[in-house]
């Protein structure tokens, strides 16, 4: 696996972890726990990760 492919896998894993964090924080909030802020940060992290993924895929073709 090349470094470019590993980078794509790493981005996908980061997105999955952010989605898990968002779901976990929603479950904690619905169970009555105080809001720790993860519920607000996780969607921002998902959006930033998708923007970075789109940028990387565009640059992917020109990388050696």
List the helices and strands and how they pair.
Elements: H1 3-30, H2 38-60
Helix pairs in contact: 1-2
Count of alpha and pi helical runs = 2
Main sheet characteristics: none
Rg from C-alpha positions? 15 Å
Q: Any low-confidence stretches, pLDDT <50, length ≥5?
A: none
Strand count = 0
Mean pLDDT: 88
Secondary-structure element series: HH
What would you call the shape? elongated
The termini sit apart by: 14 Å
Task: Give the oligomeric state.
Answer: single chain
The helix/strand class is mainly alpha
How much of the sequence lies in strands comes to under 5%
The helical percent reads over 70%
Q: Can you characterise this structure?
A:
The protein is mainly α and 64 residues long. It is 80% helix and 0% strand. The protein is built from two helices and no strands. It has helices at 3-30, 38-60. Helix 1 runs antiparallel to helix 2 (38-60). It is elongated, with a radius of gyration of 15 Å. The two termini are 14 Å apart.
Task: Give a short overview.
The protein is mainly α. It has helices at residues 3-30, 38-60.
What attributes characterize this protein structure?
64 residues, elongated, mainly alpha, single chain, 2 helices
């Amino acid at each position: 696996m090349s470094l470019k492919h590993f980078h794509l896998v790493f981005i996908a894993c980061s997105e999955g972890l952010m989605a898990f964090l968002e779901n976990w924080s929603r479950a904690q909030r619905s169970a009555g726990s105080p809001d720790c802020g993860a519920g607000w940060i996780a969607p921002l992290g998902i959006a930033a990760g998708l923007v970075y993924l789109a940028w990387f895929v565009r640059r992917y073709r020109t990388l050696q």
